[in-house]
Amino acid sequence: MLENMFGRGVRFFKTLSVFRHPVKTKKTKLRYVGAFAVGCSVATYVASTHKAEMAKKKVMKVDTSHFMAEPLTSIAKLSENPDDMKTKIELLIMKIQADFCRALEAEEDVDVRFRVDRWERAEGGGGVTCVLQEGRVFEKAGVNVSVVTGKLPPAAAQQMRARGKSLQEGELPFFAAGVSSVIHPRNPLVPTIHFNYRYFEVREPDGSVQSWFGGGTDLTPYYLSEEDSVHFHRALKEACDRHDPSFYPRFKKWCDDYFFIKHRGERRGVGGIFFDDLEEPSKEQVFQFVKSCAEAVIPSYVPLVQRHKDDAYGLREREWQLLRRGRYVEFNLIYDRGTKFGLYTPGARFESILMSLPLTARWEYMHIPSPGSKEAQLVDVLKSPREWLVDEK
Amino acid sequence: MLENMFGRGVRFFKTLSVFRHPVKTKKTKLRYVGAFAVGCSVATYVASTHKAEMAKKKVMKVDTSHFMAEPLTSIAKLSENPDDMKTKIELLIMKIQADFCRALEAEEDVDVRFRVDRWERAEGGGGVTCVLQEGRVFEKAGVNVSVVTGKLPPAAAQQMRARGKSLQEGELPFFAAGVSSVIHPRNPLVPTIHFNYRYFEVREPDGSVQSWFGGGTDLTPYYLSEEDSVHFHRALKEACDRHDPSFYPRFKKWCDDYFFIKHRGERRGVGGIFFDDLEEPSKEQVFQFVKSCAEAVIPSYVPLVQRHKDDAYGLREREWQLLRRGRYVEFNLIYDRGTKFGLYTPGARFESILMSLPLTARWEYMHIPSPGSKEAQLVDVLKSPREWLVDEK
Predict the structure, then answer these.
(1) In the 8-state DSSP scheme, what is residue B334?
(2) In whole angstroms, what is the distance from residue B235 CA to residue B254 CA?
(3) Cβ contact B338:B196 at 8 Å
């Protein structure tokens, strides 16, 4: 009864404020009003103490009300710590999730909407997993937020030390929050996108805190379109350049190196940006950079969906798409650090981690595209990554 | 020209000796006559020096001629070392491969035959990969032999030490030979089978040699048939019991423990047997045990194919089969030691390692079978492995 009332309230509000997004489907069993109401009070509090940021916080007020579900951290705790990076990142990723889900829904048939699962983790924290499956435009689209606290598993601490973190021994309390998404469209002319932006804090036995950001956005087309690749990379470069001119070239290369299917000697796609362990020049500056990157996802990708979602294709293109998705699965399950870290974390919600896998994939023994075919053209680029913006320096 | 002559010679011989197996397809570009001729001379030599084994060696003579391709080790080297375990295991796995491929072909339409790829590895050794794809009965069937020599990669040595091998430091020359197979049938009422039998030798800097056998056979049904599971386990138990009554219970449990998809808390299938690092009571006795296991593959599995290959099924069963195949991919790419060892070995032929992946697989977010459904019945057994032969002790 109470839930029904909340439901009606939300629908009323949503219908008023975002006219292009129709009423939630029945699958969404969430309480929004609390989030909305207290979200506003967070915004109000922040606005009154930081006048210079008032304009930005007012935007946050609207965005907060649009979250796909209530944040993971209690509204009370968020309101009390508006300047804590943990609060800022959680509110950012909730907003990024909601904006992206709605931008994708706008490309879909009106009766196809994200299913929203808000879940909690016994060890601390939880997440909001949004999945849209078997749409007309998107075969499988997942956008996941997780805000997790607990003790760092020794294997994870070891992995961090291996990449240069000087972490003390012992049970280290950690906080990890991130948004991650993989979109597998139905039309093989629409590329797949993946992005992930995350913030990590580890508290050492002496009380000191280490923190860093990581993330990236990368594109996996099934057929090469130079125009698409240039559009995509340009959007990412613009986001990077606003913060540091060295970021795009550095993180573009990092992306080509990271999304590498070693046993095949090919990259997963046409790249993008990727970075990890970013903590300089300051926490706030890196946060602003991550925010720019995350906000660049929609302009980098949605125009490509619009451009190609109604392109004609046949069985040949579909089969090639499924084979390429097999490669995507290989990368995610064999090499991806995020997937491994996720699956090895005690109490991990594997459904949220594995939502990145495509609805369907295919493996043919010894499938080699004919030389010169459009399939071979893609593979050539995967084997020798290109600079997409050479004329734009 | 010479190759054509050989080809004709082989066809002539094969037509005489194995009437149910028609002429090889054009894809098979191999030279058999050499293997056959010298195979006979090996048999003759062995027979003259070990009279007690003469009967068995005579069988070997026929089997050698039926190999899918020439062995990896030169015929000269094999003939000179008939009692070397490296020779014995290579001849065994070539025979097991051929017998199994032909037993499967006998269940297929007559125009569907294994493609045979014999390959060599720059670092030493090579393999014979047989794949049958898109048959009427088998959607994808792979049977692979590899005989590999080289220096043990440090990561592999480390992995062996971690499971208790006391290996010295340094570049250790190794020899590894094995047969492995995964069969994905088209009909969801026919289970998938996997087996792998292998022999490993490492030469230490002081000249001493460590050697051991490993392997197993396990069944992955899409729908539970107690009758099938009992038949399968009984065939394996009989093979084990001929050597040691403790083997079946020990290796059955090992199999349940090994083929475990940890993040889902479920086994890959209804089990079978699995063992590793077996070197006692003697190399010869373990070889005979491994031979019995490998020879039990056909009687354990082919009757199940015959029983179900023409069973009626619909879209529901097909979709469930594809979802279960997604789990199979998860196990192979995330957990399987063989796949990892393979992909991390320099110069590995990834097509032969990944032939174990199904032609098609599917991942649905939060797919949970209805309680009490036949799909849920299978999952129950995957979560709580059963003893299939409780009344047969």
Answers:
(1) I
(2) 17
(3) yes
- Indicate which residue of A21, A66, A184, A194 is catalytic: A194
Q: Are A342 and A129 in contact (CB under 8 A)?
A: no
Q: Give the Cα separation of B264 and B329 in Å (integer).
A: 13
Q: How confident is the model at residue A29 (pLDDT cuts 50, 70, 90)?
A: very low
Interface mutation target, options A129, A363, A366, chain B, most CBs of B under 10 Å = A363
- Tokens read off for B9: 């010679």
Paired tokens of A310 = 């109604």
- The alpha carbon torsion through B229, B233, B236, B237 (nearest 10 deg) reads -160
Spatial separation of the C-alpha atoms in residues B256 and A312, rounded to whole Å:
48
- Kindly determine whether residue B365 and residue A115, on different chains, have CB atoms separated by under 8 Å: yes
Token pair 């997942």 is found at A142
User: Contacts of residue B329 in chain A, CB cutoff 8 Å?
Assistant: 329, 333, 361
b vs e for B219-250, b when ≥16 Cβ sit within 10 Å of the residue's Cβ?
A: bbbbbbbeebbbbbbbbbbebbeebeeebbee
Distance CA A336, CA A258 (A): 9
- What whole-number distance in Å separates Cα of residue A145 and Cα of residue A211? 19
pLDDT (tens place) for every residue of chain B, 393 residues total: 233 333 333 322 222 222 233 333 334 333 333 333 333 333 333 444 455 554 445 434 434 689 999 999 988 889 889 899 999 999 999 999 999 999 999 999 999 999 999 999 988 999 999 999 999 999 999 999 999 999 887 877 887 888 888 888 878 999 999 999 999 999 999 999 999 999 999 998 888 999 999 999 999 999 999 999 999 999 999 999 999 999 999 999 999 999 999 999 999 999 999 999 999 899 999 999 999 999 999 999 999 999 999 999 999 999 999 999 999 999 999 999 888 878 877 778 999 999 999 999 999 999 999 999 999 999 999 999 999 998 775
Distance from CA of B236 to the nearest CA of A (A): 30
Per the CB < 8 Å rule, is B365 touching A355?
yes
The amino acid at residue B335 is Y
Which among B217, B215, B230, B241 is positioned nearest to B303, based on CA atoms? Answer: B230
Which chain A residue is nearest to residue B322, measuring alpha carbons? A360
For this structure, is B231 an active site residue?
A: no
Q: Do B131 and A350 touch (CB under 8 A)?
A: no
Interface residues of A toward B, Cβ cutoff 8 Å, are: 115, 117, 129, 131, 133, 140, 142, 262-264, 322, 326, 329-330, 333-334, 343, 348, 350-351, 353-355, 357-366
Q: How far apart are CA B279 and CA B213, in angstroms?
A: 6
Q: Check residue B51 and give its pLDDT.
A: 52
The predicted model gives A326-352 an average pLDDT of 89
For A346, nearest residue in chain B (alpha carbons): B263
Q: State whether the Cα torsion A168-A172-A178-A181 is positive or negative.
A: positive
Strand locations in B152-221, DSSP E?
A: 173-185, 192-203, 209-220
Q: A66 with A95: CB under 8 angstroms?
A: yes
**Residue A116 per-residue DSSP state:** E
Contact A263 B350 (CB under 8 A): yes
DSSP state at residue A153: P
Greater confidence, B290 or A25?
B290
CA dihedral (B109, B28, B343, A184) positive or negative: negative
Angle at A149 between CA A148 and CA A155, to 5 degrees: 95
Residues of A in contact with B322 (CB under 8 A): 360
* Catalytic residue (choose from B184, B194, B233, B308): B194
